[in-house]
Amino acid sequence: MYVLLLASLESEERGLQQVAGLAGLDSAEALRPYIAELEAVGAADMKHHIGQGEIVAVNEVPTLPEQRQHACVPCSDCGKCSCEYIKGVCQDCAAIRSVRERSREDIARWKAQLDEGKTYAMGSSTSRLHRWDCRSLMTVEKRVEAMEAGVESVRRGNGRAYLAWPGLPSLFTAQELRAKKIRRKRCELCGPDPL
């Protein structure tokens, strides 16, 4: 039974019903006496995990009772099981925290640049020079809205593919642009000309 449980960890099909079938047993319930025996010697632990039911963890080296797995720790943000990532925070919520922190830092940088009188915007992917408030640029509010749509996608279980912070462009003064000798075409909408 130990070998079957250990091998099931490497498999995509690692449910107890599949292990029971391989062992020639009728149901996952029939595994319980064997798992209890393995738990007694520290070779396995069966714990209830939030949203996943009972999960068997197999220890390659027997462990003492005080070294065995902790009880399932719910994520402090969403309440789901966090055992497979950071204790107390699941991987999705950690990614959400990270992208929100990047957004706060980027918005603070952008506001500080505006306060310093930097009014010319250049994104890394644009060949045009804009005023910071050009309507062709995505506003801070629209960027936050796009980020929050990605957060909601993660919360609905759609993965983290759309979770991102669409960074704000760098802002410069006319003097900085002249000193760097940056020559970019002017935006047709806002028409800045610092040079």
What does it look like?
The protein is α+β, with helices and mostly antiparallel strands and 195 residues long. Helix content is 37%, strand content 12%. It is built from six helices and six strands. It has helices spanning 2-10, 16-22, 32-40, 91-115, 140-155, 174-180; strands spanning 44-49, 53-58, 120-122, 128-131, 170-172, 185-186. A four-stranded mixed beta sheet has the order 5-3-4-6. Strands 1-2 form a two-stranded antiparallel sheet. The mean pLDDT is 79.
Give the SSE map.
Blueprint lengths: L1 H9 L5 H7 L9 H9 L3 E6 L3 E6 L32 H25 L4 E3 L5 E4 L8 H16 L14 E3 L1 H7 L4 E2 L9
Parallel strand pairs: 4-6
Antiparallel strand pairs: 1-2, 3-4, 3-5
Concise description?
The chain has 195 residues and is α+β, with helices and mostly antiparallel strands. The protein is built from 6 helices and 6 strands; from the N terminus they run αααββαββαβαβ.
What descriptors fit this protein?
195 residues, alpha+beta, 6 strands, 12% strand
Shape estimate:
rod-shaped
End-to-end separation: 77 Å
DSSP helix fraction:
25-40%
Which strands sit side by side, in order, in the main sheet? 5-3-4-6
* Low-confidence segments: none
Beta-strand share of residues: 5-15%
Gyration radius over CA: 27 Å
H/E topology pattern: HHHEEHEEHEHE
How much is the average pLDDT? 79
Number of helices: 6
The total beta strand count reads 6
Biggest β-sheet, characterized?
4 strands, mixed
Briefly note the structural class of the backbone: alpha+beta
